[in-house]
TrEMBL record:
Regions annotated as coiled coil: none
Gene3D superfamilies hit by this protein: 1.20.1260.10
Name of the protein this chain belongs to: DUF892 family protein
InterPro entries reported in the protein's UniProt record: DUF892_YciF-like (IPR010287), Ferritin-like (IPR012347), Ferritin-like_SF (IPR009078), YciF (IPR047114)
Domain of life: Bacteria
Organism of origin: Micromonospora fiedleri
Length: 165
């Protein structure tokens, strides 16, 4: 597909954020699978992985409203985030430090999604695509809430780790 118009760019970026949600949900599942020690963190990561599934459905509703099929686009950024976590594990961190880095990794994913949704919501508004705007805005709000939860847990865990040191 040649990218010649702003709508083409919008569809490309929409496809990329679709892959961000798909592969990001897998990334969050992997973090839980690496056996995080903090049960609160495990629950939050699991919930965020489930949220990604619902957010994929919202993206698909947007695509349906536009009358298009999703492009096959990959997010190299999420793959890089996952690879960074895998590389970090080779340093054999303590369980507590591993949990803190898992939060940082999840935050990288969530912040990527927030930035992507902000751009897409702006484009959808400019194009007058109200149904698509609603779906994308719902995802943006959920991602911003997720970021807040992760920041709080990360701060609390960091404080506990500092006090213990």
């Amino acid at each position: 597909m040649a990218l010649e118009t702003s709508k083409d760019l919008f569809l490309y970026e929409l496809a990329e954020v679709r892959d961000v949600e798909r592969s990001g949900g897998l990334l969050l599942g992997m973090l839980v699978g690496k056996r995080v020690q903090n049960s609160d963190l495990e629950q939050v990561l699991h919930a965020h992985a489930q949220d990604s599934k619902r957010q994929l459905e919202n993206i698909d509703r947007c695509l349906q409203a536009l009358g298009v099929s999703p492009l096959d686009t990959r997010s190299a950024t999420v793959e890089g985030i996952r690879g960074g976590f895998e590389e970090f594990l080779m340093a054999q961190p303590s369980p507590e430090v591993q949990d803190l880095f898992a939060i940082d990794t999840a935050m990288r994913f969530v912040q990527l999604a927030v930035a992507s949704y902000k751009s897409l919501v702006n484009w959808a508004v400019l194009m007058g695509e109200s149904r698509c705007t609603q779906s994308l805005l719902a995802n943006l709000v959920e991602k911003e809430k997720s970021a807040g939860k992760l920041e709080r847990i990360g701060h609390e865990m960091g404080e506990r780790l500092l006090v213990a040191a």
